[in-house]
Amino acid sequence: MDQHVSTATGGDASSAHLRWVHPTGLISLSFTNYVLSIVTLGIYSFWGKTEVRKRMWSAIRLEGEPLLYTGTGKELFLGFLFVFFIVLLPIMLFSFGAAYYFGPQSVGYTVFTLALYVLIFFLVGVAIYRATRYRLSRTRWRGIRGSLVGSPNRYAFTYFWTLPLLILTLGWLGPWRTTKLQNILINDMRFGDRPFSFTATSKPLYSRFAWLWIGGLLITAVIGGIITYLISADLAANAEATPDKKISIQTILIVYGVFLGGFMLYGIAAAWYSAFQFNHFSRNTHFEGASFRANLTGGGLIWITITNLLITIFSFGILSPVVQARTMRYVIQRMGFVGSPHFAEIAQGAEQDISRGEGLAQAFDIDAF
């Protein structure tokens, strides 16, 4: 069904229609990709991933017309090979060399390790930006392609220097940091020759984040207290029977259960914050006289997460394309526009010189689809 917002902006009574047409054959494709990836020792996974993307992109219909994904498995494969030989392999070789030259317990090796972490955190930012740029450059609608025209280094630098501040502020920089990074990405986006714009601030996020932060602190304190009590009671009860003070298997299992329960409780609280943040960012993302709208809910995110987790567990990960499609369907069916972009006035943008896929994103396992 169509999911769109009928509110008008700027006197325009119509809104662009965005809907999802579920792709067929995802289950059979899942098993095909799984078998061929095993037979080819993982090499086919790049082509399998491309086929999944093509089906999911085409399931998204804007004004009744599908998106088109034009990336290839070869591009993803070449991107991974490039990153492996230019980035990953040198990192591994230098790590072994530093350990051998300085000694694993030396100050020199510690300094090298810290420098390596700095490099990796910076490269993660580069990976996120370049993966987004690649996917946009391989996305078409009515023959017009998307693009990302900024610098990966600018995004990566922001991603990097805000990370230690996030830790130092015990997470309170989080809403500001997320908004800042989203601002860079969206304002660098183009569809054809027309830009997107992002006007969100982090201020509306902080009231809900405060509840989430306080809730997380309380959950941590309660879980910590329960675990401390369980371990202390177990050691006291078994002090005479086990002089070496080993914790019983039963207590270990209960501790894991308590920890898992606390983690799930925090996840439920975080879902409402994530839904609010997504909706807030959508309202403040604009394109050609129109604005996006989304009505994700915390309950919806919890349901899709739990059911996807069960599908993944019971299929041993084989049905990951089904899980990805369910996630995208949930989001697309709850998104729409206020106003209608002036599509007829959009011209083709300049073609970007991108010949390889998002190898860094695959190497750091931050590849969403």
What would your notes on this structure say?
By secondary structure, the protein is an alpha+beta fold. The protein folds into 2 domains: 19-199 and 282-363, no CATH class; 201-281. The chain is built from 11 helices and 11 strands. The chain has helices at 26-39, 45-59, 73-102, 107-137, 152-168, 174-188, 203-237, 249-283, 298-314, 320-332, 359-363; strands spanning 18-20, 60-62, 65-66, 68-69, 139-141, 144-148, 189-191, 194-198, 285-287, 290-294, 335-338. The strands form 2 sheets. An 8-stranded antiparallel β-sheet has the order 4-5-6-7-8-9-10-11. The chain has a 3-stranded antiparallel β-sheet with strand order 1-2-3. α8 (249-283) crosses α9. The protein is globular. The two termini are 24 Å apart. The relative contact order is 0.16. Mean pLDDT is 88; it is low at 1-13.
Multimerization state: single chain
The best one-word shape is globular
Question: Can you tell me the number of structural domains?
Answer: 2
List segments where confidence is low: pLDDT < 50 over at least 5 consecutive residues: 1-13
* Mean pLDDT figure: 88
